[in-house]
Design goal:
This protein is α/β, with parallel strands linked by helices. The protein is built from 14 helices and 17 strands. Helix 3 runs parallel beside helix 5, helix 6 runs parallel beside helix 9 and helix 11 runs parallel beside helix 13.
Length: 425
């Protein structure tokens, strides 16, 4: 049931509310270097912007490119990058810029302790990028950068020079250790001067199965669950990236009416592991569900009719240890345009760090979908007497104003705002 008022009352000064992160005013991460040249001393957000000024051409997102049209004098055009107190925008000229910004937001890399153990370098095929998000889960925690046969794409090459991955040491049985590497090359991409492990030069379902095998090797065993997402419907597959990064559950792919052979083989390797199919019957048919059920002991569907409803369904879902189960205030959220699956994959580290939270979708630049708006209203935080003891929501907005404009950001900010509940005291 959707609540039409804020949820949440005051939390105590100590546990259980003590582990909840309190919101602080945040500013969006600008793109142009000139916009932050005089402010570099203020911290890592401006460090991110410094590497984004020289980014190249836009990356393919697997959907129609968003329109850049603006009416003269519109509020969105007159207030670009406007800060808001409950949202942080990460924008860039292309997906590679988004990935570089996210990686440095999660790993500021000003000291060795702030650097990642490894990075994941992946090409611009969205299916491969979404499946690669699982390598952001513990114990690997590798952020994603876009790359090709020449290495990381600008400005990811500059970000990699700052991240300087330390290398990962993995424990084996008997307290023996093994080298986990500094980088994971997904498909035909180069890893400059790094101790790397790589998958084969495949794409889509075949590459996802290889990533799942790499994940099993690095994580020392089978996953707790497997997500099967639509291979040919990016908008319904996008939320899987955030959950994979959060949980370590791998993402495999199915077509609308066919279970690819690599996916079937990967499922046969773990017949006792529960499978969750993400997306409606139009994206993955009941016949495919039955085929999966013939391989594994338990399979369930998590779905919504639209991409926005589908993302909300996964955000709300809980089945034992599977699912975000985010049905109350005090969480982080990541919002991406439905036509930008690469952005969803590259933003996945934000769902596995900081204010940890699910991916939500908006379907055009100007207006928040009804399903997303009602969900954010349902989990809107409130207090009765003392706002400093309340829970807070925070939303990462991924992409520029051609994807999610300033008016929509303002609406999201209002939905995330802490609100007084009840009469005066």
């Amino acid at each position: 049931m959707t609540h039409k008022r804020p949820i949440n009352a005051d939390s105590p000064a100590t546990a259980p509310g003590a582990e909840k992160e309190e919101a602080r005013p945040r500013t969006p991460i600008p793109v142009a270097l000139k916009a932050i040249a005089g402010l570099a001393v203020l911290g890592v957000a401006f460090l991110l912007a410094a590497i984004l000024g020289g980014s190249g051409q836009g990356s393919s997102q697997g959907g129609s490119p968003p329109s850049n049209d603006r009416e003269a004098g519109s509020s969105a055009e007159s207030t670009p990058g406007a800060p808001s107190n409950n949202t942080t925008r990460i924008e860039g000229e292309d997906a590679a810029s988004i990935g570089a910004s996210v990686a440095l937001a999660v790993y500021p890399s000003r000291t060795p302790a702030q650097r990642p153990g490894a990075v994941t370098l992946v090409g611009e095929t969205w299916q491969d990028a979404v499946a690669s998000a699982v390598l952001m889960a513990a114990p690997i925690r590798a952020p994603l950068l876009l790359a090709d046969a020449g290495g990381p794409l600008p400005p990811g090459d500059q970000a990699l020079a700052m991240l300087q991955p330390k290398g990962i040491t993995l424990e084996k049985a008997g307290n023996r250790s093994r080298d986990g590497g500094q980088a994971y090359a997904i498909g035909p991409v180069a890893t400059p001067a790094l101790d790397s492990k790589r998958t084969g030069d495949t794409v889509g379902a075949a590459q996802a199965a290889e990533i799942e095998a790499l994940r099993d090797s690095l994580f020392r065993g089978a996953p707790r669950h497997v997500v099967v997402a639509p291979e040919d419907n990016a908008a319904f597959a996008m939320p899987a990236a955030a959950w994979a990064a959060r949980s370590g559950d791998p993402v495999l792919y199915a077509r609308a009416d066919k279970l690819p052979a690599p996916t079937a083989a990967a499922l046969r390797a773990h017949p006792k592991v529960p499978v969750y199919v993400l997306g409606p019957t139009s994206a993955i048919s009941p016949a495919v569900m039955r085929e999966i059920a013939g391989i594994v002991k338990r399979v369930k569907r998590v779905s919504g009719k639209t991409p926005a409803e589908n993302a909300v369904a996964l955000a709300r879902y809980a089945d034992g240890s599977f699912g975000w189960n985010v049905n109350d205030p005090g969480h982080g959220f990541v919002i991406v345009r439905a036509g930008a699956p690469l952005n969803a994959a590259l933003a996945a580290p934000l769902s596995a760090s900081g204010t940890w939270g699910p991916l939500l979708l908006t379907e055009n630049a100007e207006k928040l979908p009804k399903a997303t708006r009602e969900y954010l209203l349902d989990v809107k935080p409130g207090y009765t007497t003392d706002p400093t003891r309340a829970f807070y929501n925070h939303v990462w907005i991924i992409g520029g104003e051609d994807e999610i404009d300033a008016n929509q950001q303002a609406e999201i900010n209002q939905l995330a705002e802490l609100t007084k509940v009840g009469g005066q005291r």
